[in-house]
Each structure stands twice: as C-alpha cells, then as structure tokens.
Design a protein that fits this description.
Blueprint: H1 3-7, H2 16-24, H3 26-43, H4 45-48, H5 80-116, H6 118-133, H7 136-147, H8 151-177, H9 181-188, H10 193-229, H11 241-248, H12 257-284, H13 286-289
Length: 290
C-alpha cells in the first residue's frame, strides 16, 4: 500500500449531507442567526454603543429605560446598553478562548491515552475521573481563587474545568480507530505514532470534538458569569454580564433592569450555542441525520 493510499484513509469530513441536514433543520437557523447577531453586536460595540461604558453620569443614576437610556442606567449612572454590548466582548472572548484551550489540551490528552493505552491510559483516565467528580463551578472557583481575578486567569480556570470532558470524548473513538486497517498499514509503512495520531486519528474524531466544543462554550459563559457574580471575574469597572448582575443585585427591587437585561443576554447566548450544538450533533450523526 502506497503512502498516498494511507493518507487517503477514511476521514469523516463535513459532507454535503451534513450541510443539507443543517439546512433542513429550520430550528438550527434560529441558533445560528441569534449567535451571529450577538457576535456582530460584540464586534461592533464601539459603533453601536450610544455612550462610553465606563463614563459615569451621577445625576442620571438608576434611571429606568427611556428614550435617552434605552436599557436604563446603573448605580453610577453608566449606560446599561453600552455596558451590555462591551460586556459581550469579554464574555464571548472568555468562553471561546477557554474552550479552545480546553479542546486542544483535553483532546491531546485523550488521543494520547487512547492510542498508547496500558498503564498510561489508566493513570490519565483516573485523573480525568477525579476532575469530573468535582462540580464545574466548584472546580473553577478553587482555581480562580488560587490564581486571582483577571481576564487571563479566568480563561485558565475555566479551561481547566473543561479539559476532562474533552479528554473523555477524544479517548473513546481513538481506541476504536487505532484498531482499523489503515492504522495498521500506516505502522507497517513506518509512520511515527505522532504522525498517525495527528494525520489519521485526529481528523476522524474532529467532528465529535467540535460538537462538544459548541456545547461546552455555553457552559464556559455560564461559569464566567457565575464566577463574576461572586467576585472572581474580571475586575471592575470592566463590564461583564456576570459582573453587571452582581452590581445590580443590591438594587434589584427598585432597579430591575440592572439584573434582567444581562440575564437575558446570557440566556440568549447559551440558548443559541445549545441549539447550534444540538444541530451539529444531529447533522454529523448519520443515524439522527437519516
């Protein structure tokens, strides 16, 4: 068998059938459109924001939604809409970057454990099981408390909480794929284990990892909001959705908009990501696609 034949081994790439399945699933376009609108608002926040999100208007503090301040003002007179738009940047960035870090690290660990097997697999999966035994928020709380509150530390804390699920997802299909004929042929051709794992194993499990990433990004955004609510998020006055809820909680009875609007933003983002993740899973799985 030639090198070209080995390289052409079966790889589950997105096919026309997958895209057709996504197109037929009208409900999935709700999530795609909603997520696109949120990302658009975050990217163009400087153009869409009517006010500086950090500028205080003390005389206009705790103003209810009006024609001047569409979503009201907070206890420092800052425009809630402007802070909501800029907060989307922080929340989405933390969610995306933490999931990317967790996906790379966790998938690498899972592929190595599944391919090498033996004692190494048992030790790694034992550590993964220990990490999975901790609730996500509790584990993130411990890591964030040790590292301190900052943008970079929050990404690391959330990534650590999500590494174990990616390792578990990557390991199972790796074990099945390494027994396939084209993997044996690659070994007989003298391919190194790193080449086999990177060129032949990874592309075959990438679709499963991408689906998990879309679902866990929603979890990352929830975790970031939860950590910000208890004071372990990005330091104020930088606007984040969780931080806005925390700041508005003291005035929830007489200024409901301070909590409601950031909560709606989190709800819509998580909903959009979950819809997208479910749609990708149904489109990639041939059983549900049929």
């Amino acid at each position: 068998m030639t090198d070209a034949a080995i390289t052409a081994a079966p790889v589950r790439k997105p096919s026309n059938a997958v895209f057709q399945a996504l197109r037929r699933n009208r409900f999935s376009w709700i999530g795609i459109g909603l997520l696109a609108a949120i990302i658009f608002a975050a990217i163009f926040a400087p153009l869409l924001s009517p006010y500086d999100p950090l500028k205080q208007h003390i005389l206009d503090r705790l103003q209810a939604p009006s024609s001047e301040f569409w979503l009201g003002t907070d206890s420092y007179g800052r425009d809630v809409l402007s802070r909501l738009l800029y907060g989307a940047r922080i929340s989405l960035s933390i969610g995306f970057l933490s999931v990317m870090v967790a996906m790379v690290v966790g998938s690498t660990i899972g592929i190595l454990a599944g391919y090498i097997g033996g004692l190494f697999d048992q030790l790694v999966m034992g550590l993964v099981d220990v990490m999975l035994s901790f609730p996500t928020l509790l584990l993130g709380l411990m890591v964030a408390a040790m590292l301190g509150a900052s943008f970079e530390n929050l990404i690391i804390a959330i990534a650590i909480t999500e590494t174990a699920p990616f390792a578990r997802i990557a390991r199972a299909p790796t074990i099945a794929i390494k027994r396939r004929e084209f993997i044996d042929a690659g070994r007989s051709m003298g391919f190194t284990p790193l080449r086999i794992m990177g060129v032949h194993v990874l592309p075959n499990i990438l679709s499963d990892i991408v689906v998990v990433a879309s679902l866990w990004m929603a979890s990352a955004i929830r975790t970031e909001a939860s950590l910000a609510f208890i004071g372990l998020g990005v330091r104020p006055p930088t606007p984040t959705w969780g931080g806005m809820i925390r700041e508005g909680f003291d005035n929830i009875l007489n200024a409901w908009w301070l909590v409601v609007f950031p909560s709606i933003a989190i709800l819509l983002t998580v909903l959009a990501l979950n819809i997208l993740g479910d749609a990708l899973r149904d489109a990639i799985d041939p059983k549900t696609r049929s």
